[in-house]
TrEMBL record:
Name the record gives this protein: Transketolase
GO molecular function: magnesium ion binding
UniProt cross-references to InterPro entries, sorted A to Z: PDH/Transketolase, THDP-binding, Transketo_C/PFOR_II, Transketolase-like_Pyr-bd, Transketolase_C
SMART domains given in the database record: Transket_pyr
Lineage, highest ranks first: Bacteria, Bacillati, Actinomycetota, Actinomycetes, Kitasatosporales
Domain of life, per lineage: Bacteria
Species assigned in the record: Streptomyces shenzhenensis
Length: 303
């Protein structure tokens, strides 16, 4: 199976062909995959070099002239390093753009901590008006990228990951999708965490909701699920643990509830290792998730 990032260049090349407003801005990373797009649209595919602040600033300038910029690099260089430009050049000026990341939380361990960004979604949560998409499969990534570019002049973050679920689901760029129904709690699986959550909850009497759009958070769907399954809620996110607990609390503000936020821990792991070793170290493998989810909701097994 190809990866989410493999889909990026072909999709944006077609979008450049289809829509004269679309422009793509990169900072060296990704330029090889975009060679054909650069050949076909030399004035709308811009490589600013290793200048991440300029990357976002140039995108904001394009947006202010009426263009729809798509900005791409590793998550740590797209959200963390140029955060002031994301905050001011895009946010403060109300300039829309589509930020498309790669490498996610720890997708390239050999790159070291400089190439890891488990806090990217939490950081964007400090700003107003961002839509955040977290696909769990290349098909979903393609759909959500197209949605994001077509979303007028909104500010959208599309978080691509090397990890993926075995199959994609139909996504609409909006709400939560019910994958499994139960009556002893609700587990929200975000993006590429779905397969591990389904394996971890096999035979357990819990409802599993699947989220690929995490901001805005689908409060209405969560409330509906808790009415049938109870108000013990577990969040399993592929980034900083607890990132969406505030959104859940807001959705259930008038209902007594408990929340367990699972995700990437704050403790820095100082060895490169493999992706699988990082997953296990953060307790995000199926066996660890089953133990942690079961202990929290005390769920009976299905008959």
């Amino acid at each position: 199976m190809d990866t989410m990032r493999d889909r990026f260049a072909p999709v944006v090349t077609h979008l450049l062909d289809e829509d004269p407003r679309v422009a793509v801005v990169v900072a060296e990373i990704g330029k090889v995959a975009l060679a054909e797009a650069m050949r076909r649209h030399p004035h709308r595919v811009i490589n600013v070099g290793i200048r991440e602040q300029l990357l976002v600033g140039a995108a904001a300038g394009l947006a202010l002239t009426g263009m729809r910029p798509v900005v791409h690099t590793f998550a740590s260089f797209l959200v963390e390093r140029p955060f002031e430009q994301v905050k001011l050049d895009l946010g403060h000026q109300n300039a829309g753009a589509v930020l498309v990341s790669a490498a996610a939380s720890f997708d390239w361990p050999a790159g070291g901590y400089t190439h890891m960004a488990p806090g990217d979604v939490a950081l964007l949560d400090t700003l107003d008006g961002w839509t955040v998409q977290v696909p769990g499969h290349p098909d979903e990534a393609e759909t959500l990228l197209r949605h994001a570019v077509a979303a007028g002049d909104d500010k959208v973050y599309v978080r691509l990951s090397e990890s993926a679920n075995r199959r994609g689901h139909r996504v609409d760029g909006r709400g939560l999708r019910t994958v499994r129904e139960g009556r002893a709690g609700v587990v929200v699986a975000v993006g590429p965490m779905l397969d591990a959550v389904l394996a971890a909850t096999e035979g357990l009497e819990v409802t599993v909701l699947y989220a690929t759009t995490v901001r805005p958070f689908d409060a209405a769907a969560l409330r509906r699920a808790t009415q049938a399954a109870g108000t013990d809620v577990v969040l399993v996110e592929p980034y900083l643990a607890g990132t969406s607990t505030g959104a859940v609390s807001e959705a259930l503000v008038d209902v007594p509830h408990r929340i367990l936020g699972l995700g990437v821990g704050r403790r820095e792991l100082r060895k490169y290792g493999t992706v699988e070793e990082h997953v296990a170290a953060h307790g995000l493998d199926a066996a660890s998730l089953r133990e942690r989810i079961g202990a929290f909701v005390a769920v009976p097994a299905r008959a």
